[in-house]
Amino acid sequence: MNILQISSTPFTDQKPGTSGLRKKVQRFQTAHYLENFLQAIFNVATDLKGGLLIVGGDGRYYNTEAIQTILKMAVAHGVSHIKVGQNGLLSTPAVSHLIRKQSAAGGIILSASHNPGGPEGDFGIKFNTANGGPADTKFTDQVYADSQHITAYTIAEIDDVPLETQGQYQLGETLIEIIDPVSDYADLMEQIFDFAKIKALFGSGLLSICFDAMHAVTGPYAKEIFERRLNAAVGSVINAIPQEDFGGGHPDPNLIYARELVERLNQGNDSPDLGAASDGDGDRYMLIGRNFFVNPSDCLAIMTANAHLLSGYQLGLSGVARSLPTSRAVDKVAETLGIECYETPTGWKYFGNLLDERRITLCGEESFGGGSDHIREKDGIWAVLFWLNLVTVKRQSVEEITRAHWARFGRHYYSRHDYEGLDSTVAEQLMKALRKRVETLKGETFAGHTASHTVSDCDDFSYTDPVDRSVTEHQGIRILFEDESRIVFRLSGTGTEGATLRVYLERYEANPALHDLETQVVLADMINIAREVAELKTRCGREQPDIVT
Ligand code: G16
Fold it and tell me: Is 113 assigned a catalytic role?
């Protein structure tokens, strides 16, 4: 076998964002672009030599081509064993689980998550380390630094490996194994949740689900788990076949893009009891009841309050964590339970140390992410199973469970407004101006429709990891009000075009008589204050957000 050294020069745009390197497919197709980035990974992740590597992706366009390149470069770099999902498929949670179960040195996941796919769409690559979690910032900074000095990459001259059937191939020192992507993960779910109880309810017709796989990676997982192992009616999983362009859709599980699911859940008594959707790579989820949406921040709070009812979590929780922009609903629960609640920057990687040190058991994010210490990634199907198990134990609907939660802990009205496709310089200037503004904002009072709102605190969020003491700065502008309302501003780290400003709005209401109001109406004062403080119209020329979730 020939090992080739191919000359190359650095690309300046290979700095990973919130979750790996995400670019347009065409950028990844640029000669040497993918190879350079992989070379930097192999240079930094030295444990891969002689170790086990897990490889898979969400099935989007360019997935299998990229995998062939990874295999050739991994062989050239002396990786001794590579496990690849059949047809190149592995969900992000499944990769995390396999790394941990097989004591792998790491994993490479090909996905741009919820971003659209196809030749004109997005592609991405992320590296997960031996704990199963996304590589931390120190690692990704090293990869970027290394990528800026690349002069050549190393690749083996071998044929493409057939990914369509399970099997093994010995190539020099490297064993390549094409594995069933689903079974290990499904077995793990069966260990955590009470499958017998859920199966009995599905079997008796007392429980029904509609799961929208959005033509992305969770289709085969959901079919196996919900329909085969749990006996949900055949057809409970829709859009179940992964497609390179996600069927032309946008694999983002929210009320806008999971339209078919939402329609099915709005049919009154004919609707399934529970609706759910997952994203491209299976780590995000949306949960809805009959004509009833539960926002991801509330999901985390409800899970935290009820975890002890589930056999897998009956010993209680060591602590919980949420990202900065996630609503503070879970904080109220943690306070009542007397457990620690950590506030981290956006990005699942920041939960890794807390999970490894057993400081937390559950964590979640407003961006439709939830997970636990069973792996080191957020996990869409796990979250749906959590809810199914909860509904089974409580014998209450999603809506009843949520309303009871609000009655006990109060409701955090919450919404995210996204301003997309902004000029990057304009967006950076806006954030810079906000940083300056926060220095003097404390104590200021803003008039509102029904009440005025005084700023009690305000900062540019900085996080000191309690485990390794690393400091991560400038993670978002946080404006807290005396009445427990809050506004957070930050720029997205996952986009591939221009900049996206995210404005997170929150208002707390303790009175159950006021828990049925329209979210955007309740948040109107916060929306106006956010526009005014950020000077959105003058700086960006925007009156309205592009996406409201
Ligand atoms: C990634 C990260 C999440 C983050 C989300 C949104 O999720 O893993 O932690 O909340 O991006 O990030 P941003 O607001 O910077 O766009 P995923 O599912 O896209 O990998």
Answer: yes
